[in-house]
Amino acid sequence: MVLKPKILFIVDRPLWAYHYMVMTWEELIRKEYDCYVCYQEDYLLRKLDNYKPYSIKNKYIYNLISIIRLYTSKLIRKRKPIYFIHNSCRYSYPVYPINEVFDMKNNEKVLMKNFDYIVNMAFYFPYTAKIPFIGEKNLIGIFTDSFPHEGPTMDIKNNIDRTKLNIEEFYTQYLKKYNSIIVGGGSLYNRYKKFTNKIHFVYGIYGQANFIENNAVGEKEELIIGWTGSPKREMKGFENIIMPAIDNVCKTGRKVKLKTKFSGEYSELYDFYKNIDLIVIASSADSGPSLFAEAALSNVPCISTKVGLPLTVIKDGINGMFISRDIKSLEVAIIKLYDNRELLKKFSVNIKKDYLQIMDNSITVNYFLQALED
């Protein structure tokens, strides 16, 4: 029997965005690859804010005790990690009696350390965790379009505040050593293309066929506008642009309602858009958002700033609208579609087929496979 290549995906935590993306790929490539997953949160470092008490002598005593505890844990089959102090004394790191890594086909733990490919889904995982697996080829991901990129800013392994690095320094420190870089939408691809040819746009939307279509967009007098995500992230513009713009439209006497979802089970998104007429995106930088993909799969068109996936899919005036990132621009665009329902319906008819022509999972999974071959 020919052994299939083994891929380890490193994601932040179970059933969050990165996990759903790799679950999408795994379903499409399982005939050719064996896929496994581990979670960065299981291997997080603990910063030692005051490490002076950890003299060389104390560190060795602490670690000797940890070795004994680890050996005992293996004998009695305990799962909890044992922490060791790093030589730098800047942080401690977990070691498990049995490593936390799971087969993606059945979610069963496996005894494996070596893989053909290791895919870190976020650039900050390697400096925020001590992950004990070895890959013959290693990939690194970036899915936040702003720079400095969103994520933990302090690299305690190397004692670097990465926000002080320019983009070339950041690339050299955190990306250059990898076999391939995978990125989301927006300007990420072009931003790093000048440093390397080993860069690939990738994407995947889990449960693509499960989203319920709204085939009655714009039919009712009331216009329902949808939004999902983290409302407190300023770069999303929810509180400082979207909400004020919708309030202003309501003040004109037009019947507009905002429908939101900030948390919950992923499966709840499948029918979230079934009565939504329009979504709005006001991000300053975004490699997605998944909101756009989910809505497009539900026949729901979008008004958006020029970011991420909308920049890839939207044809202005044909299947959606672009706006400047300010309250007035969004307000004017909403009023235009409220008053011109035929235009809104045209967008609805076009957006799903246009999205799938470019972003169907069966297409985008090949971009990931190309990244493996670098």
Task: Specify the number of helices.
Answer: 11
- Sheet of most strands: 7 strands, mixed
Number of domains: 2
What order do the SSEs take from the amino end to the carboxyl end, as H and E?
EHEEHEEEEHEEEHEHEEHEEHEHEHHH
Give average pLDDT, whole number. 95
User: What percentage of the residues does DSSP assign to strands (E)?
Assistant: 15-25%
Give the CA-CA distance, first to last residue.
Answer: 26 Å
Q: In which order are the strands of the major sheet placed?
A: 6-2-1-7-8-11-12
Folded structure, characterized:
With 374 residues, the chain is an alpha/beta fold. The protein folds into two domains: 6-202, no CATH class; 209-361, Glycogen Phosphorylase B (Rossmann fold, 3-Layer(aba) Sandwich), CATH 3.40.50.2000. It contains eleven helices and 17 strands. It has helices at 17-29, 56-76, 125-128, 167-174, 188-193, 238-251, 290-297, 308-313, 327-339, 341-359, 361-372, and strands at residues 6-11, 34-39, 46-47, 82-85, 91-95, 102-103, 114-120, 134-142, 154-155, 160-161, 180-183, 199-201, 223-228, 256-261, 278-281, 302-304, 321-322. The strands form four sheets. A seven-stranded mixed β-sheet has the order 6-2-1-7-8-11-12. Helix 1 (17-29) packs across helix 11 (361-372) and helix 6 (238-251) crosses helix 9 (327-339). The chain starts with 5 loop residues before the first strand and ends with a helix.
